[in-house]
Design goal:
21 strands; 8-stranded parallel barrel; single chain; 28% helix; alpha/beta
Length: 485
């Protein structure tokens, strides 16, 4: 993108990386769910349901989930990694990273595909339990776990609690002792890998809030403390190097360093830590510029690297687990918007066309937060107009309220048209807000010509009901005087 003194948001309207489309109406299949296509009239369909029908029945903005695509991705990940590790004499399993997007239905579909659930909060644990997920296949993450989260994890009997600090070991030991149980513990290890991704989603370098440093000896100290604790079982070592990663090299380095720590613990304590978790972070294709590998390619490379590291360390192959989130749910969802205002602005480097839609940063903050890129397509009709570079923006009171920074749409795009943005399954709805008091959209699951809500949209009425103001019915409390405390 051409440089500009005010930053990339004000650069020229014709980015050099954006390929000129041979057909501006055509979809790039690798950006969309497997059942998404366009008919002869240019109308986008998913799972046998058309975009205009979905907009009429459920409104917009709307998150649309391709159920068949999600099932296939989950099953494909599990089978690819299972086969690759079996080929080197090992085993692999997957835990869906619920932080990407979790509802009761999604948790159930993941369980049906043989995946566990990786949770990061009390709410995510409750959803997994409500969906009937086997607690042995549920894990709990978090750098600041609450007492309620630890209590539910122990009382429900989940299969892994990932320790993130030294004080947490003492808290968990006390909570497990009070219940007369043994808590299964993994130690989250900061392995010092610099993942090639945005700073906010790179999580294995030293200067960040997650994990225990391998370099400084904190990870080893934590593992030693868990082994010595009366009510804790060391079931694994964990690392997570970041998100939206295409290069498997970082995972391979992390695996080798975890294997080395595992070998040290075996020598010191005579125990063989049964599992290594390499986290998630597998990238997806948001635009034509993204080049992720296939599940099979990633799995084969990682299986070979781990087997080699174990041979060099003189240890057996552990059970290896992964936590895919974005790679499963991301491409299975698109967001459907209705176009309102179209404005053409002279920038000094040409005319930029702003296409305003009825959502924005309240339903997709990632462009503003991570400088993320997205694509889009006209979803409601065919067009014979010339392709034109547009910027799809939201309705909020922020200049950074951008959904799609640059994409080709037909030059006759106008009010009432539908625009679909692919790849919005991961982190869009979980990070959604009520900025400008805009209700958050719901999620519709589509399969075999049928559609149903799996997450209801918010309403203004519900939002107002949560705002009692100074109404007579609003409860009042007062802090007692110090003498009464």
């Amino acid at each position: 993108m051409p440089a500009h003194v005010s930053g990339v948001l004000h650069a020229g309207p014709s980015p050099v990386w954006l390929p000129y489309p041979a057909d501006v109406n055509a979809l790039m299949p690798s950006l969309w769910g497997a059942s998404v296509s366009k008919d002869d009239a240019g109308v986008l369909t998913v799972g046998g349901c058309s975009a205009p029908w979905l907009a009429r029945e459920f409104g917009s903005p709307l998150y649309v989930l391709d159920v068949a695509d999600l099932r296939a991705r989950a099953e494909g990940f599990a089978s690819s990694f299972g086969a690759a590790f079996a080929a080197v004499g090992g085993r692999a399993r997957a835990f869906y990273a619920g932080k990407a997007l979790l509802t009761t239905a999604i948790a159930g579909w993941m369980a049906e595909a043989g995946l566990g659930i990786d949770a990061c909060s009390l709410g995510e644990l409750l959803v997994a339990r409500r969906a009937g997920v086997d607690p042995a296949l549920v894990g709990l993450h978090g750098n600041n776990k609450s007492d309620a989260e630890l209590a539910l994890a122990l009382d429900w009997g989940i299969g892994r609690i990932v320790i993130d600090s030294l004080p947490e070991i003492e808290r968990l030991e006390a909570a497990a002792a009070a219940r007369g149980v043994r808590a299964p513990v993994m130690v989250r290890t900061t392995v010092g890998v610099e993942a090639h991704t945005h700073d906010f989603i790179a999580t294995a370098h030293e200067d960040q809030k997650f994990g225990l440093s391998l370099t400084t000896g904190q990870a080893r100290a934590a593992a030693d403390a868990v082994v010595a604790a009366e009510h804790l079982d060391l079931v694994g070592l964990h690392s997570h190097i970041g998100s939206q990663i295409f290069d498997a090299e970082g995972f391979e380095v992390a695996a080798r360093r975890l294997v080395e720590l595992r070998a040290q613990l075996q020598e010191a304590h005579g125990i063989e830590v049964p599992e290594l978790d390499l986290g998630g972070g597998f990238g997806i294709r948001y635009t034509s510029q993204d080049t992720p590998g296939t599940f099979a390619q990633l799995a084969e490379g990682l299986a070979q690297a781990l087997a080699r590291a174990c041979r060099e360390a003189g240890t057996s192959l552990p059970l290896v687990s992964f936590e895919p989130g974005r790679a499963l749910i991301g491409p299975a969802v698109f967001t459907l918007y209705t176009v309102g205002t179209v404005k053409r602005v002279e920038t000094g480097a040409g005319v930029r066309t702003y296409v305003s839609v009825d959502g924005g940063m309240s339903d997709n903050i990632r462009t503003a937060l991570y400088d993320a890129d997205y694509s889009c397509s006209l979803a409601s009709r065919d067009s014979r107009a010339e392709p034109a570079v547009v910027r799809v923006v939201g309705k909020h009171c922020e200049s950074g309220d951008i959904v799609v920074r640059d994409e080709y749409l037909p030059a006759d795009i106008g009010p009432g048209d539908l625009v679909a943005v692919p790849g919005t399954g991961a982190y869009c709805r979980p990070l959604a807000s009520n900025y400008n008091l805009v209700p958050r959209p719901g999620i519709v699951a589509v399969e075999d010509g049928r559609a149903r809500w799996i997450l209801l949209p918010e309403t203004h009425e519900a939002m107002l009901a949560a705002d009692p103001g100074f109404a007579a019915t609003a409860p009042e409390t007062a802090e007692p005087p110090r003498s009464a405390r």
